[in-house]
């Protein structure tokens, strides 16, 4: 998702396009409201679900780009026999012509649909996660207490931050942030967990707190947190180990896939 936004903004500097957005759906549909694609004279950025609906939307957008009649308002598309799709629902699409002057507004608008993630730790797993999350519907604030740990080239929606002490950064995280804790030391990890639990007491606005490590590590942390007065209900807000179960392998990229999948579960409607 972030990679697609980067591509859109880069291409918009060179040519105009048409932004096609799903504004609403009824019944079964291939994508949800908020999904978008950009149509260019040649090529696409992102997708609204593929199939005949997308093919028709591309044709209509390109006709406008080539000097045809402007597309006003929102168009309704039943996903039935007329489109050759068996979903059976309805999608409502909005078309908007975009050019270089719209880049800043588009970046803010489309980025606001991304779930915020605070990633503590610039090690191998952190780096693998940052790269993966850049392709998913998340905006990432990547934090470490050490200088010089972050790569120089990163997607535009990954923000790096040096914080010393590292747990200070918890206080001003965006409300609704999913927090991932995987610093270079257990001491730092514990400090970040404590800061997150204190913030939950005050504001209760961090929907997911994930700590990398084993069950043994978490048992040790639980004893230390109990000694600091945290209750069992408060500690239950921390997920450790992190990642969806059943995915084997210790490679950073494998761990990143399991953790990203768990984050996606945490953002899915119940």
Notable characteristics:
270 residues, alpha/beta, Rossmann fold, 6-stranded parallel β-sheet, elongated
Please, could you describe this protein's structure?
- The protein is 35% helix and 22% strand.
- It is of the alpha/beta class and 270 residues long.
- The chain is elongated, with a radius of gyration of 22 Å.
- The model has no long low-confidence stretch (mean pLDDT 90).
- The chain has a six-stranded parallel β-sheet with strand order 8-7-6-9-10-11, with helices on both faces. A five-stranded antiparallel β-sheet has the order 3-2-1-5-4.
- The chain has helices at residues 2-12, 51-65, 103-111, 124-133, 186-202, 215-227, 232-235, 252-267, and strands at residues 17-26, 36-39, 44-46, 74-78, 90-98, 115-120, 138-144, 158-162, 178-181, 208-211, 238-239.
- Strand 2 and strand 3 form a beta hairpin.
- Helix 1 packs antiparallel against helix 3 and helix 4 packs across helix 8.
- The chain folds into two domains: 2-110, no CATH class; 115-267, 3-Layer(aba) Sandwich (Rossmann fold).
Rg calculated over all Cα atoms: 22 Å
What fraction of the residues are assigned to beta strands by DSSP? 15-25%
CATH architecture of the largest domain: 3-Layer(aba) Sandwich
Main sheet makeup: 6 strands, parallel
Q: How much helix is in the residues?
A: 25-40%
Uncertain runs with pLDDT below 50, 5 residues or more? none
N-to-C SSE string, H for helix and E for strand: HEEEHEEHEHEEEHEHHEH
Write out the CATH superfamily name of the largest domain: NAD(P)-binding Rossmann-like Domain
Multimer state: single chain
Task: Please state the overall shape, judged from the principal axes of the Cα atoms.
Answer: elongated
Count of DSSP E strands? 11
Secondary structure tally, helices: 8
And the CATH topology of the largest domain?
Rossmann fold
Strand order of the largest sheet: 8-7-6-9-10-11
When the domains are counted, the total is 2
CATH class of the largest domain: Alpha Beta
Average pLDDT rating? 90
Give the CA-CA distance, first to last residue.
Answer: 22 Å
| Class computed from helices, strands and strand pairing | alpha/beta
């Amino acid at each position: 998702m972030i990679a697609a936004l980067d591509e859109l903004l880069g291409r918009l500097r060179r040519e105009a396009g048409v932004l096609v957005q799903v504004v609403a759906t009824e019944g079964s549909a291939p994508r949800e409201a908020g999904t978008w694609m950009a149509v260019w004279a040649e090529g696409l950025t992102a997708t609204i679900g593929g199939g005949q609906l997308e093919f028709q939307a591309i044709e209509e957008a390109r006709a406008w780009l080539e000097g045809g009649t402007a597309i006003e308002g929102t168009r309704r598309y039943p996903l039935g026999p007329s489109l050759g799709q068996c979903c059976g629902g309805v999608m409502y699409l909005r078309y908007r012509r975009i050019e270089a002057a719209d880049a800043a507004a588009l970046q803010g608008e489309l980025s606001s649909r991304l779930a915020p993630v605070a990633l503590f730790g610039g090690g191998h797993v952190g780096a693998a996660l940052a790269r993966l999350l850049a392709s998913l519907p998340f905006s990432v604030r990547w934090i470490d207490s050490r200088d010089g740990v972050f790569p120089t080239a990163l997607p535009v929606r990954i923000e790096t931050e040096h914080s010393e002490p590292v747990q200070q950064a918890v206080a001003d995280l965006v409300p609704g942030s999913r927090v991932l804790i995987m610093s270079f030391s257990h001491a730092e990890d514990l400090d970040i967990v404590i800061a997150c639990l204190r913030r939950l007491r005050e504001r209760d606005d961090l929907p997911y707190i994930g700590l990398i490590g084993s069950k043994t590590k978490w048992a040790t942390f639980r004893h230390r947190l109990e000694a600091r007065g945290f209750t069992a209900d408060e500690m239950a807000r921390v997920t450790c180990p992190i990642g969806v179960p059943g995915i084997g392998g210790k490679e950073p990229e494998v761990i990143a896939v399991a953790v990203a999948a768990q984050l996606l579960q945490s953002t899915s409607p119940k």
